[in-house]
Amino acid sequence: MSTTNTMPAADAVAELLWRIESQIDEVFATGGELLSALPRARVASNLPAIAGQAAFEHFSQALLALGTARGHVVAGHRVVEKVGKQIGYETNFGDEKPKGMFNPTGGDVAQLRVAA
Description:
mainly alpha, 2 helices, 62% helix, 0% strand, rod-shaped
């Protein structure tokens, strides 16, 4: 099977993958801004704590779902990346940071100190 015919299709997939990752990050960041704005707006409006609580809970659940969706996109990215390597196609769209050194569950906490 020739990989030269797959390159335009692979380029299209890579472009779409880059777009969805960027868009999910943007929505996630906007959602975080919304969540932080709600209690500030409540306090500024001198409203009781119950005001807007249902909306806050719904938006919080939406952000949790976005976090899960982001994880699925990252997992899909890894699968597509493996397939790309199998057909001799690799791209980065500016994401040239090494991924192998990155711990998906968090960084090495042994280096962290508690500041008192």
